[in-house]
């Protein structure tokens, strides 16, 4: 089994190739999207297209676990982990743009009471505060 390539030109090249093809993904069989870009022993990914709330097509390639040789399929669950931070940041910026909040607001003013942990270090949304 090939060793995992956690970064570098191989991963960047594959990502660029996928992005180039993704613009045409709506009109192609997704199972072919990753051909030649992600090998069967490489860390992998999955992609699905939806239309009107229903899955139209799914494409999967590579491994969910390189260590154990577990391939990715349409039922593979992914841990989004730190990827959720960028969605949270964009959501907050959109709310600020729309005047729902400001970046200097105390975050406790916008969260349900049950989510708030009492701490003397609680800060507003502004990283400068």
Structure in a nutshell:
The protein has 129 residues and is α+β, with helices and mostly antiparallel strands. It folds into 2 domains: 9-71, no CATH class; 81-129, no CATH class. 22% of the residues lie in helices and 16% in strands.
Give an overview of the whole structure.
There is one protein chain. With 129 residues, the protein is α+β, with helices and mostly antiparallel strands. The chain folds into two domains: 63 residues, no CATH class; 49 residues, no CATH class. Helices cover 22% and strands 16% of the residues. It is built from two helices and four strands; from the N terminus they run H-E-E-E-E-H. The strands form two sheets. Strands 1-2 form a two-stranded antiparallel ribbon. Strands 3-4 form a two-stranded antiparallel ribbon. Strand 3 and strand 4 form a beta hairpin. The chain starts with 8 loop residues before the first helix and ends in a 32-residue tail after the last helix.
Topology:
Blueprint: H1 9-22, E1 45-51, E2 54-61, E3 63-65, E4 70-71, H2 83-97
Antiparallel strand pairs: 1-2, 3-4
- Calculate the mean pLDDT score and round it: 77
Helix-strand makeup class = alpha+beta
Give the biggest beta sheet: 2 strands, antiparallel
Report the helical percentage. 10-25%
- The count of domains is 2
DSSP strand tally: 4
- Low-confidence spans: pLDDT under 50, at least 5 residues? 1-8
User: Strand fraction band?
Assistant: 15-25%
Distance between the termini: 50 Å
Specify the number of helices.
2
Strand order of the biggest β-sheet: 1-2
What is the H/E string? HEEEEH
Rg: 20 Å
- Shape designation: elongated
């Amino acid at each position: 089994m090939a060793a995992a390539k956690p970064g570098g030109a191989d991963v960047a090249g594959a990502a660029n190739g996928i992005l180039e093809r993704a613009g045409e993904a709506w009109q192609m069989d997704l199972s072919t999207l990753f051909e030649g870009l992600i090998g069967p022993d490489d860390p992998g990914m999955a992609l699905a297209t939806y239309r009107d709330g229903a899955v139209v097509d799914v494409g999967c390639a590579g491994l969910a676990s390189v260590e154990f040789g577990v391939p990715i399929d349409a039922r593979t669950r992914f841990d989004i982990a730190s990827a959720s931070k960028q969605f949270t940041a964009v959501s907050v910026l959109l709310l600020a743009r729309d005047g729902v909040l400001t970046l200097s607001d105390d975050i406790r003013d916008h969260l349900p009471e049950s989510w708030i942990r009492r701490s003397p270090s609680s800060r507003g949304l502004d990283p400068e505060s």
